[in-house]
Amino acid sequence: MTLWVFGYGSLLWNPGFEPVETAHAQLRGYARSFCMRSIHHRGTQTDPGLVLALDEHPGSVCDGLAMQMHEAEVDATMTYLRERELVSSAYLEKSLTVTLHDGREVTAVTYVIDPDHVQYCGALELEEQAQIIARAVGGRGPNSDYLFNTASHLAELGIPDADLEWLSHRVRTLLA
């Protein structure tokens, strides 16, 4: 059984598994944004941070990476991903079609935001996002590290994201 995972945030720089194949990919109908309050990894219950999620938006396209799992490690990898991504049930696990850079279409396990979940915050302005990201710290460290790692990996991969570029610049200014 061939199984793919679509990465658009921290899975780009910390997938937690060794893929058989990695390819640039596009997911249609979803936008990457800081639309999820983080109460575990990049913030706390009393001072939530923000993490990226895929918010369903018809007409949008999210560029990221599709990573194929080793067949022998599918069960272990899925167990790991579910423990990591479904810690607060704000993400929904979906099997969605992504288009690889070479034109192939594959079905990929994709974690998208549940817009009805209490941690969903899809209407925040970029400045408010920057203020939150600059101050929040959670179990996996400062929220700013998450932003900087994701933005730098997107840049290394040649995947432009104007909002993350703006947020990176603004948060660095706030932290200076």
UniProtKB/TrEMBL annotation:
InterPro entries cross-referenced by the UniProt entry: ChaC, GGCT-like, GGCT-like_sf
GO BP annotation list: glutathione catabolic process
UniProt KW Amino-acid biosynthesis keyword: no
UniProt-listed Pfam families: ChaC (PF04752)
Top enzyme category: lyase
Top-rank taxon: Bacteria
Keyword Lyase: yes
Record protein name field: glutathione-specific gamma-glutamylcyclotransferase
Species whose genome carries this gene: Marivita hallyeonensis
Record lineage: Bacteria, Pseudomonadati, Pseudomonadota, Alphaproteobacteria, Rhodobacterales
